[in-house]
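[Automated response] Your request has been received and processed.

Submitted sequence:
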Amino acid sequence: MGQTFAEKILAHYANKPDAATGEIVTVHPDHLLMHDNAAPIVKKIASDLDTYGLCNTKMPIIVLDHVIPASDEKTATNHQLIRTFVNKYKLPYFYDIGEGICHQLVVEKGLALPGQLLLGSDSHTCSYGAVGAFATGIDRTEAAALLLTGETWLKVPKSIRINLAGTIRQPVSAKDVVLWVIGQVGASGADYCSVEYHGDIAQFSVDDRFTIANMAVEMGAKNAVFPVDKVTTKYLQSLQITSAQYKAVAADSDAVYASTRDIAMEEIPPMVAVPHHVDNVKPVAEVAGVHLHQCLIGTCSNGRLSDLKVTAKILKGKTVNRGIRLLVLPASRQIYLDALKEGYIDIIVKAGGVILPPGCGPCLGAHQGVLAPGERCLSTSNRNFKGRMGCKDAEIYLASPATVAASAIHGVITDPRSEVKP
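Generated structure:
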């Protein structure tokens, strides 16, 4: 009997010949991601760190991105504590404010490679499946123990195979595809499962795969992964990473899955997730005309250069509606610089957009872009739960960069096909 991706990779990291679904295995991950929450994690084990020290200085990746620049004294103090911790242990993988969003940086800096195991104290760690890694979020307490011991346990998840068939029809994008998939599977339909994407995936760039893998947790999945192919290797080569530096892991052709789902991508129109659940999805056409107050393009789901390119293409020569606050957030400093070079930032600012520093603030309602009671935001982020953007009496809709950009022009939810012809 063949093995799934999850069974293979967890058996390898547990130093076992195989690992069965449901089995508990002890693993030593390549990296542990933390962000601003590194402060409470480090505080939790302060005395143990003094006694035993840090297990492996090359394991932690720490990024300050959630509330940047610091919005108050408490946040600034936590940032200070993290910088002190980093300097004390001379941690090589630390990225201070302005470098970018943690998940973008892990991939962009070449810290997530095919066949690797990465854990993170953030639920969207699953993003790194875009490059063929097994990546998943863990609790802060588990992260604290991992810093001290270098090991933790995982249960081998059941696996779901999703076959993406056909070709998407522009301006339909990867965001529309993943919203469609989540709508089909449900918010809990993949609970503690490993989701493998197969089929006609060559049309998806690593940026696209990142968006799809990023939102796996919104259907309850433990992780999501794309097979390593020419798209992956070309992207890694652009980072100066050769195939000799990693060993890709692929599911066997006769692997056994808990379920298989076929998605006909030609059928997918531009999609919107309406309040207050990510799986509450509808075609944009069904909710067109809903009045908006704020539009957000960016976050770890859709803040990449390709997203800003689409945004600039739609906004060029046009003006953001007078009643709309359009916030645009590049996912990293490098993306920001590249967008400046390509002229995308110039177009967005001239249209009336506001550029925010690379970070997470408005996505979780922590900083820069909090909503007021009764306001509606159309966002490229990954969650629309009640209170997610800082106000329990506001509404959040999720969509692609193309849909958000088109809607920013008109002030209401707008089908992007009115601005970009297929």
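Summary generated for your ticket: The mean pLDDT is 95. Residues 5-263 form a domain with the Aconitase; domain 3 fold (CATH 3.30.499.10).
If you did not submit this request, please reply to this message.
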